[in-house]
Amino acid sequence: MCGDPVENGELIIDGGNIIEVAAQQGSDDADLDLSDYLLMPGFINAHSHISLTALENKLSPSDSFADWIRALISHNSALDSESRVQGIRSGAEAMKRSGVTALGDYVADPELLPVIGGLGFRSVLFLETIGFLPEKAQELCKNVEEILLRGNPSSICQLGLAPHAPYSVSPDLFRLIGQLAQQHHCPVSCHVAEIKEEGRFLVLGDDSLEELLKERSAWDPKWQPPYKSPMQYLSSLGVLDRLIAVHCNFVSDDLDLMAEKKVSATFCPQSSEWFGRTKLMPVRALLDRGITVALGTDSLASSNSLNFLDELRMADKLLPDVSRKEILTMATSGGAEALGLQCGTVTSGQKADLIGFRLPSSYSGPWWDVPFEPDRHEVDFYRVDGRYDAGLGAK
Ligand SMILES: [Zn+2]
User: Fold this and answer.
1) CA of 259 to the centre of ligand 1 (A)
2) CATH number at residue 47
């Protein structure tokens, strides 16, 4: 991800860190022979909701996004905690088997932090907040701050903040979360410009989203559309700097603003396909503008798979003007840059989060095609922080 591949190289790791990448220098008993493997940085799933994994096959795409949210709320509230935790564990296994070593996950229920923080991923767990009533903003923010003050769940897992979306979070709550993020040096992520109704909501008002908020007793009768695009709106609230923006289907007019504010964009290929989106994130234009693009799975409430190799193949299908090398960069160093993690490349000083693909000795194609091969569903080598994961069975 940061230079020419090293043939027959030697990689030295110690204490979870990559010490050196070099041409082969001889071996000793402590070495692991990976001579028939393509070794690369682990994949970074920059956007997931792993606690929704148990909703697999329960929802179907709907013409109305508001109807999909209604169905999501109804199924999600009916889940018992045992099924939810089982789902989290099976979701983690599917991600790990397909090479995900780091995660940016939205956590709606703070009680799940120990479970998700203990899955073994390097991760940023974003505390998800929803609240469109301005009078609730102070209290919601105070709850989030209490969790931040308890500290990070583990040494490889830090906390972030995730105001859900411009149509579900009040301007006051956005401002308070922005201030909290600055005080606690937290990364912030948000679903932005996902649906056309969101753009309408911010300019003219949108009946379907207003109706949804009213049903949830969350409508603010004093709401006045700010007459801004989603990105401009978040900028006016002071939360756009270094925002990890998810989806970004309607941002073509805001590329300069995104570049200026160092916003990163997370593309969720299979979720976009599942919804049948006709307008997708303008990935080519974002990359050409120098904006960091990452990849995410989103959840099984809007996708059929958490397998990251499926995600790569779907990105390849949906983005004909983006090369496989660029997609792999999005899946690794792009995700690391977006989430602020010290991984995503195989270089000295980086964390030893590594995956490998075993190659037949006859393989002669380019290295970047390997993860896209249609019959690849698992990685053959997996390390997070240099550690072997006994549950996986990969070398
Ligand atoms: Zn999402």
Assistant:
1) 22
2) 3.20.20.140
